[in-house]
Amino acid sequence: VLHVHWWVPGAIAARLARVDVPTVLTLHGTDVALLEARPRAIALARWALAACDRVETVSVDLADRLERTTGRVADAVNPMPLDPAWLAVPPPPVSFAPVEGPFTVLAAGRMVPEKGFADLVDAVAGMAEPVARLVLVGDGPERERLAARAAHAGVEAVLPGRLSPEALRAAYGSVSLVVQPSHREGLGLVAAEAACAGTPVVATDSGGARDVLGADGLVPVGDVGALRAALASVAADPAAARERSALVAVRVRERLSPAATAARTLDGYRALTAG
Q1: Which of these, 246, 170, 163, 166, lies nearest to 201 by C-alpha position?
Q2: CA–CA–CA angle 63, 82, 97 (5° rounding)
Q3: By the 8 A CB rule, do 180 and 227 touch?
Q4: Distance between CA atoms of residues 73 and 244, nearest Å
Q5: Spatial distance between the Cα atoms of 64 and 51, rounded to a whole number of angstroms
Q6: Which CATH architecture has domain 84-255?
Q7: pLDDT score recorded for residue 215
Q8: Positive or negative, the Cα torsion across 206, 212, 215, 218?
């Protein structure tokens, strides 16, 4: 079995190589987003996909988007696993916020418009009580604009840049809430990681978040008012939010462990080679 990732370049390379073994393709999100943004590439993608005997996506939403753009139906949904470190007991928190300090909201990712960080800044700015502080972890072309936006809105913001995986795990454990405000996500690893850290999570209905958190309680993409209300709900009852997060963590550990992903992958290989 040949297993490749992303239709470009993986499936294209497999088609050009004319391999004579069953080929599996995993799609992760950016490759399908490319087709949505550049429809002229759809014909090339269909040509490449025709060489694949089995196509897997990392979320149900991504499978739906693949079918809408190319007509190809995914054979399975097989999310990538979390690093085993995320599934272990969370490390001691770092000091982004003291235990009895202000309501602190964290978001992490590449600072580009599709991650929705500007929406989060605006949502935090409009909170009546408690006044929240915001931690934006990561880097990217929007970093300076986000810092300026927060300052203009009167939001106390910390932008520590990129953090190591160990530091990010500790950061998740130090805050009141982790938010994934994305406009589009292939899977939604930030939500999964935060839940495993035992921290309440709020996310937009941006695709892969449904697979991680379930359909209930997701915030419409780009709806700043709904996002602000979700933040206020967690602030009003943090204990209930942590209970919900603990239930999510159980599901994440069951579905996103390396062993679970390996089992799904091997099942797919067996299905291809059984005949």
Answers
A1: 246
A2: 115
A3: no
A4: 33
A5: 20
A6: 3-Layer(aba) Sandwich (3.40)
A7: 76
A8: negative
Q: What is the pLDDT of residue 198?
A: 86
The residue among 272, 247, 110 whose CA lies nearest residue 186 is 110
Q: Do domains 2-81+257-273 and 84-255 have the same CATH topology?
A: yes
pLDDT at 95 over 50: no
Nearest alpha-carbon partner for 138 in 182, 203, 201: 182
Residue of 97, 86, 274, 262 whose CA lies nearest to 176: 97
Cα dihedral across residues 181, 224, 239, 107: positive or negative: positive
Mean pLDDT of 153-157: 93
Q: What is the pLDDT of residue 102?
A: 80
Q: What does residue 240 show for φ and ψ, rounded to 5 degrees?
A: -65, -35
- Give yes or no for a contact between 35 and 56, defined as CB atoms under 8 angstroms apart: no
Sign of CA dihedral 250, 256, 258, 264: positive
Please, how many CA atoms are within 13 Å of residue 76, restricted to the half-sphere of its CB?
Answer: 18
Overall size of the chain counted in residues: 275
3-class DSSP state of 91: coil
CATH superfamily, with its number, for domain 2-81+257-273: Glycogen Phosphorylase B; (3.40.50.2000)
- Extents of the domains making up the chain: 2-81+257-273, 84-255
Percent with pLDDT over 90 in the chain: 71
**Phi, psi angle pair for 36, to nearest 5°:** -65, -35
